[in-house]
Amino acid sequence: MKRIGAVLAALLIVAGLSIYHRVAQSLPRLEGEISLSGLSALVTLERDALGAVTIRGANRMDVSRALGFVHAQERFFQMDLMRRSAAGELAALLGEGAISIDRSRRIHRMRARAERVLARADPRERELVTSYAEGVNAGLASLGASPFEYLLLRQQPSAWTPEDSVLVIYSMFFQLNDETGRHDADVGLLFDVLPRELAEFLTPRGTEWDAPLEGEPLEVAPIPAVGSMGEIGAARPSDRDPTSELGSNNWVVSGKKTAHGGAILASDMHLGHAVPNIWFRALLEWGARRIVGVTLPGTPSLVAGSNGHIAWGFTNSNGDWVDLVEIEVKDDDPGRYRTPAGWESFVVHHERIDVKGAEPEVLDVRETIWGPLIDEDHRRRKRAVRWIAHDDRAVNLELGKLETTDNLDEALRVAAGSGIPPQNFVCADRRGAIGWTIAGAMPRRAGFDGRLPGSWADGARRWDGYLAPEEHPRIVDPEMGAIWTANARVVGGDALDAIGDGGYSLGARARQIRDSLLSLERPSEADMLAIQLDDRALLLDRWRTLFLEVLREREPLADVRRFIDEGWTGRASIDSVGYRLVRDLRQAVFEDIMGALTEPARQADERFRLSELPQWEGPLWKLVTEKPPHLVPHPYRSWEEALAGIVARRASRWTEPLSTRTWGAANVSAIRHSLSPAVPMLSRWLDMPKRSLPGDSDMPRVQSPSHGASERLVVAPGREDQGLFHMPGGQSGHPLSPHYGAGHEDWEEGRPTPLLPGPTRYELVLRPSP
Length: 770
Prior knowledge:
Low-confidence stretches: 3-15, 237-241
Radius of gyration: 27 Å
Oligomer: single chain
Strand order of the largest sheet: 1-30-2-3-7-8-9-10-19-20-24
Shape: globular
């Protein structure tokens, strides 16, 4: 038996070494020389200690080809998932567990749309993505083995095509837009089942927390005299923690205000965390051009950064880019529906979904003139989704023109004409000027404001094309010397009507940023990073005061009150018990009070989500402070009793000692590789170490276990040597690479590292093939 055990152990060691060898073969090439067909001249690839790449070539096409080569070597599996996710082709790689995602995505038929987008692109843009795709395939082929993920999946990677780069852009539309119209659906449901005055009260377009660049805060409507409060305390698991809604921050400060006289950009885009990180750091040089910042693997252009003349960054606009259209189906012919031109037949597309290890599935997609059928509402009315991503006008490759744009005015025009998910675009130029606009396509609505679903059959409600770039709202060099955005309302009046409300965020984060910026006299890059790391809990201050009052003279909850009083640091800091308790209790009040008020909506449609009410802080605070007698929650006799009861019920769920309920115990990072949940034994090697992190929603340092700043960038154009940068997860996607996770600890600690790459550690030369 001992001999058998020894043989088995030896076999396991040999198998392990064999697997290790195969995984090691897929490491990217860091040094030496490689021939690359299609190059016009030699290209050098330099990497610093963190793996930040500098690519130097003779022209932009050579640089694009080399960037594709590097992306494939370091991040091909990530790129593959992004194109497949957008196209609804994950199941072919991952198996039956991905079919539901494929079904939801295939409704939108993005691969066919990507082919159309590329066909109408100008010749230079097609050449750029073609050279990039050829570089990707060369980089993949030059690996000693396929990326290690394919070894685990027992699959082989498919070649990259130019259309795949467009699909990667579409994948960002899915991340940043509400492609199913859920926000419109839930707001519309409230207006269907509640008294109109109550629905208006629960869905304000702003609150006293607003910090727009133009206009004033919008007041929440008075508490209506109609409506009733149902029984509170019912379990509503789908409502858990809507406060975890996350977003991004960016701002620019005029050169007239800064310490060195140059305009400064600060940008931290908040997205889901994963290993590797979504962005890939790069400095690209050709001719007299040098650009630095972040690229998106799968695409050839710089996404955010600086070209020495301008610096730019993005936050999601959360504007209204999706409408739900109620479809009037012909009673005697369910294959036809009413349009302004009369009865039309649905166009049916038969979409084949390939499935690894199983038979393919065919999905019938029915399309209308407005878009594909998406669902039925609570009254069994069929609905189609009208989404900008379905229109050729809304998606293009023009964002890359920012790389060679030299001034603010031109940058704002390029941004407005770019085909990306509509974003708040902020820009600073070398002269010290600053500006904001909406980047991406903006529909021109006629006959309605886009807030609620409805029929478009009579033509009174419609989209009349898109705003021209010069019609996009813009702000240039405001007198206050600063511009900020944080996914909240930016403007008012006609500009707000044009952008619409797609569920934009509470203004608390934007207000905290604004107040910090305007308090600085001569700000520097270090000051900008300090604001990005600001974890002060200003929004919760008043809730802390409220709970201290509610718990006064309530002896059974004396310990809760003591920790709220004495364990409060004023921040979402990892050592704060008071912060976690106040946050949890505010959440309990929200779930119980708002849940009871909106219960008719849940009864009508179980898909209803309280998280689609992002301005809930405004009406909820009115309720708990004005305490309307007709809305006293059942079964209580007063608001004071109700609030105390909610606190007691939530506190009864806490099983551990209060002294251990710190925010750090709850806010523990979970930054994982996409395959580690399926192969838990590899988590130790693939995932970033778990760590308690400060920060939360509704403050600049946004942080949850799996969401937060995907990068922090600070730069003044022309002063890139003073720029700051860090990001989670590291540069490489290969766990045996020295750059896997490199720099992650800097991001955790909030330590500034230089934006420009450091001294060269590795150099790879790409030579044109003979």
